[in-house]
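Consortium newsletter contribution from the modelling node. Members have asked for a concrete example of what our holo predictions look like. Here is one, prepared for the magnesium ion complex that several groups have been discussing at recent meetings.
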Amino acid sequence: MAEPPLKVPRHVAAIMDGNGRWARQRGLPRALGHREGVKALHDVVKASSDLGIGFLTVYSFSTENWHRPESEVNALMQLMAASIDAEQDGLMKNNVRVKTIGRTADLPESVRLRLARLVDATAGNTGLVFTLALSYGGRAELVDACRRAVESGSPPATENDFARLLYDPELPDPDLLIRTGGEQRISNYLLWQLAYTELYFTETLWPDFRRDGLVAAVEDYGRRQRRFGRV
Ligand code: IPE
Ligand code: IPE
Ligand code: MG
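And here is the predicted structure:
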């Protein structure tokens, strides 16, 4: 008998965790784990496009990650700059639109300028919307939203009004959150948006989470029953 068609989430959010442990298990420096993590992300973006997922939002660097050793932060920033350069053509070819959320003004210029260029170059693409959460914190986003509300002089009256103050008002709430690396926590990700998201945790370390990992998560999601507080 034919398999039933996959029930595909419209918006998948991912906490890409476990790069450091992947490297340690192999006696490699953490930076090499991050480099392998970029390869996994490349696969997952392509697989998301192929599955017909509308939005993919990945936690790439948190506000708390600034407290890691300077050498690791620098390695991550260099990797981001290099990856943007390396991936731009492929993203264009796959009709992927790239966006960012977070306090991106805090990123070094080498990353900020490349990001701005990538966001600009892909702005007209109509396929997967691929959002990078960079220097992102859920609490920071809520504080920034409140600040914007005060500055505008018109406080939000409804939840929809408030959602329009978030970093990207066009981003729908995630249907599925995937966290790799075995930890079962949110780590300050998308605190407002995750209110009714289905949570999926896997022991797989992010560098090992490829197309098959995504398909398994989406299949699991397809078996969930969402109620949104109703009967
Ligand atoms: C996630 O992997 C990537 C970032 C947070 C930038 P980690 O670097 O947190 O890897 P582990 O959790 O130490 O294995
Ligand atoms: C969450 O992973 C942040 C990113 C994946 C970018 P962390 O490794 O920073 O989270 P904790 O410290 O385990 O909560
Ligand atoms: Mg981690």
